[in-house]
TrEMBL record:
Domain UspA: start-end pairs: 1-141
Record-stated family: Belongs to the universal stress protein A family.
Organism expressing this protein natively: Natronolimnobius baerhuensis
Protein name: UspA domain-containing protein
Classification via InterPro entries: Rossmann-like_a/b/a_fold, Universal_stress_UspA, UspA
Length: 141
């Protein structure tokens, strides 16, 4: 059975390390890279739901494309033989990751590297995902 691994990527070094870890420990896996765009006051109401200012939408798409391009580069560098898919989510990162976990066997996520009060006050996406995910989670430092 092929392992299906979800690797959330936000463009950080920690996320890249998580993807490299997934390649190393799951060389034949089907890997899905998920990039989640957090919304912070950039939505506009439209008649049939939520829409985005065209500049905001273009910025989100450009950012996701850059993250996915980097994932493809890391895939080539690692010589990964398995499948690499990309998905973009919009909204709360934790919720988007947990929702995407329904289709995978494992989540490999980078540690955000927060320490002390910042970690206590802000929490951690990785820690929350580890507590709530329906599949095993590997947190990579």
């Amino acid at each position: 059975m092929t392992t299906r691994v979800l690797v959330p990527m936000d463009g950080s070094e920690q996320a890249e390390t998580a993807l490299e870890h997934a390649f190393e420990f799951h060389p034949d896996a089907e890997i899905t890279v998920l990039h989640v765009v957090e919304l912070e006051g950039s939505t506009l109401e439209v008649s049939d739901g939520i829409g985005f200012d065209s500049d905001v939408q273009q910025g989100m798409e450009n950012r996701a494309e850059a993250v996915f391009d980097r994932a493809q580069e890391l895939t080539a560098n690692a010589g990964h033989e398995g499948v690499l898919e990309t998905k973009m989510g919009i909204g709360d990162p934790t919720r988007s990751i947990i929702d995407a976990a329904d289709d995978v066997d494992l989540i490999v996520i980078g540690s955000e590297g927060r320490h002390g009060a910042a970690r206590l006050l802000l929490g951690s996406v990785a820690e929350t995902v580890a507590r709530r995910a329906p599949v095993p989670v590997t947190i990579v430092r």
